[in-house]
What does this fold into?
Amino acid sequence: MLEVVPYPSVEAERKLKNIRERKMGADPALEAQVIEFVRAVRDEGDAAVVRFTRQYDAPAFDEHRITATEEEIESSYSAVEPDFLEILRNAVRNIESFHRHQLHPSHFSTRPDGSFLGQMVRPVASAGLYIPGGKGGRTPLISSVLMNAIPARLAGVKDVALITPPTRDGTINPYLMVAAREAGVSRVHKAGSAWGIAALAYGTDRIRKVDVIVGPGNIFVSLAKKYVAGEVGIDLLAGPSEILVIADSRADADYIAADLLSQAEHDAMASAILITTDRDLSQKAGASLEKQLERLPRHEIAREALTRYGAFFLVNGLDEAVELANTIAPEHLELLVEDPWTLLGKIEHAGAVFLGDCTPEAVGDYYAGPNHVLPTAGTARFASALGVENFIKRTSVICYSREALDRDGEAIIRLAELEGLEAHAASVRIRLAGPR
It folds into this structure.
């Protein structure tokens, strides 16, 4: 399926260019449609949300059931198995434990001259979590609920709203509902796509507006988040999923194939890359891909992704493999090598790194604790995983003493004058000339 391409080479650069340029881009007509959805909700509120929901998701949607009731949430517990609840709560504990390390307190200091400086760390008042419907509610994205809600709750956000498309009968998958309750979600709303994002951003009679919107979604969701950014904060504009595996000669070809498929099955624009020092291994991995594809329910999607955006690169050594990986800056990076720890310090750009044979990417997606909302499409060069910091804001605190102002005043005046801002300079000068 995938030919082994030497790196560096002209063919390798061609493949890399094709992978880098894959985008969930939209044509002007699609962007115009998203703007129409968003503006309709901004101007009409619930009426637009209900109209679009009936048109695209639930034909008989009850306008009075936009918000899930307490009875709906509680009854969801009877629809899930006890073992699921145990697994869910263990995952919640793992994710909470990891993200607690991201909490940073406010800090203050007093200088000998009596001036006081500091920073107050405060959560946003409200956050909105967008969770896709997943095949009409049949494949609930439980892990996305946990990964988005738990950092918000740990940050101290008091109002955590979840919004997700309803099923055809106007309900929400019970597994999703239970996950929302266990993760600390305050309210659950039934609305999807661009109109769901707009409802969170602008607010309606039944859906209170939020300060920050996070969560994955399709091109309509991404474009809507891009449009409302500034009205609210957003996490990131996620692109198609991707995985990059660095493997040496001792790596297991079946493991490699399985891990590449774990991302290729997401959608036809997903990218799956192997960088190896061993040509024989790449050929074995390719053969294993073919075998495992036959058993995969989403084999058509995975095959298209691999054909369009899959690649096997052959390098001369692991240092060259790391250099290429840093150039790509992948969302998920697996190190299937004899001693992955020797490579970890050389990794400069990656959303998440998975070390060793027993750490497939799925471990991070669901259970280990680190967040699975990660930068894609090379943005790991400057962006990070979703975390507590997405739900906090920092406020500077400054209090100068007379001694400090006397010492620094002329310097401040000089800088203000160089910028041509005389009123800035005057606000200091008038104090220096005033009573002591």
